[in-house]
Amino acid sequence: MLYCSIFEHYKYTNRIIMTNYKTSLKLVNKIQKIRSKNNKSWMDILKLSLKLDPKSASKILSNIYNDDKKISSLAKKILKINK
Asked: On the CB side of 55, how many CA atoms lie within 13 Å of its CA?
């Protein structure tokens, strides 16, 4: 009977760990997707700065800033899940 209780506890704990892992992995994948867009935006702003178009560069910088906020939010969720 004690063995059964220990085994059930192990299964429950393992299920929680796997759920946290899967949730964290989904969030990391979202971060990766946002990062790829963000990296392209950085290259775009570099090209625009070379053309000396500060108005357009500011618009792209705004997009980069918004993507960085999304990444920070997802990173905070991962930290909360794995405390």
From this structure: 0
**Rounded CA gap, 21 and 56, in Å?**
40
Distances from the Cα of 8 to the Cα of 14, 36, 69, 72, angstroms: 10, 42, 41, 36
Q: Determine the average pLDDT of the residues in 2-19.
A: 78
pTM reported for the whole predicted model: 0.57
| Count of C-beta atoms within a 10 Å radius of residue 67 | 19
Rounded Cα distance, 76 and 83, in Å: 11
What is the amino acid identity at position 8? E
Query: Both tokens of residue 31?
Result: 């971060």
